[in-house]
Amino acid sequence: MTEDATLSAFTGDEDAADSSAEEGASESDTASETESDAELDAKPENALERDDTTEPGPAVEPATSTYVWGSYTCETCSETVDRAWLEDGALVCPTCKDW
């Protein structure tokens, strides 16, 4: 019958060599990442210059609601309704809405 292996049997010089190789690789990776970041930050020669002093374009008109729910009075027939639509600036009931 053979002896059972222990954890100490698996540790040795090979592990030390592997860990030093990994450290060397991580140092070179960090250096290449720094170089890559510098390349990304540099402007290409043919890059267009952006003029940040220009005035903003025309203002966008805010959206207008066309449907409301709750307790409303129709401005056409004066009926109290729980749903109303906006038609020509007035809240109207479904019956008075020009579909």
UniProtKB/TrEMBL annotation:
Compositional bias of kind Acidic residues: 12-39
Residue stretches making up the DUF7573 domain: 63-99
Species of provenance: Halostagnicola kamekurae
Basic and acidic residues compositional bias, start-end: 40-53
Name used for this protein in its record: DUF7573 domain-containing protein
Region of interest: Disordered: 1-65
Pfam families: DUF7573
